[in-house]
């Protein structure tokens, strides 16, 4: 199979798979393989050297990522106390913890932390549900129920009550590590 890359740093290359399958790969200028999808296989690469000789190399190609899992999961917004009650009942029935990120749209640290929490949500995709509450857009009774005094505050709720919290006023990676440890205690 012949492949031509769209970028100028990709070169033409001929690929022959030993088992007669031909998945799509791109070859970099130094003979590096860039698979188009996750998978593995043995490939034989043929390249013409400057002298006109054909050089062959056998390579074992393995993907370093899993495309079946999402890389981020969007936090689900909570808008009122009734919705929080429904979420807590459902989580209690499934005996799973939930994470609630109490934040504000004007809070710089909250905005910075949200994509990191979305990546963490993807890591615990089937074990923990992640939610967010914008404290300026919900009734203050909901904010009082969460006992929120500082933002961002990330709380873990299980069995209908708040079990643990992290107040995220420090470095984002430290907050994420603390949240990860908090989750691992309760799953």
Can you offer a commentary on this structure?
With about 190 residues, this protein is an alpha+beta fold. Helix 2 (about 110-125) crosses helix 4 (about 170-185). The chain has helices spanning about 80-95, 110-125, 140-145, 170-185; strands at about 1-5, 15, 25, 35, 40-50, 55-60, 75, 100-105, 130-135, 155-160, 160-165. The protein has 4 helices and 11 strands, in the order βββββββαβαβαββα. The protein is about 25% helix and about 30% strand. Strands 7-9-8-10-11 form a 5-stranded mixed sheet. Strands 1-2-5-6 form a 4-stranded antiparallel sheet, with no helix packed on it. A two-stranded antiparallel sheet has the order 3-4. It folds into 2 domains: about 1-60, no CATH class; about 75-185, Glutaredoxin, CATH 3.40.30. The radius of gyration is 25 Å and the shape is elongated. The longest helix is centred in the middle third of the chain and has 16 residues, at about 110-125. Keywords: Disulfide bond, Electron transport, Redox-active center, Transport. It comes from Lotus japonicus (Lotus corniculatus var. japonicus). Pfam families: Thioredoxin. This is Thioredoxin domain-containing protein.
Distance between the termini: 48 Å
- What structural category arises from helix and sheet content? alpha+beta
Strand content: 25-35%
The CATH topology of the largest domain comes to Glutaredoxin
The CATH fourth-level homologous superfamily of the largest domain: Glutaredoxin
Number of helices: 4
Shape: elongated
InterPro entries: Thioredoxin-like_sf, Thioredoxin_domain, WCRKC1/2
Pfam families: Thioredoxin (PF00085)
Keywords: Disulfide bond, Electron transport, Redox-active center, Transport
Domain Thioredoxin: 58-187
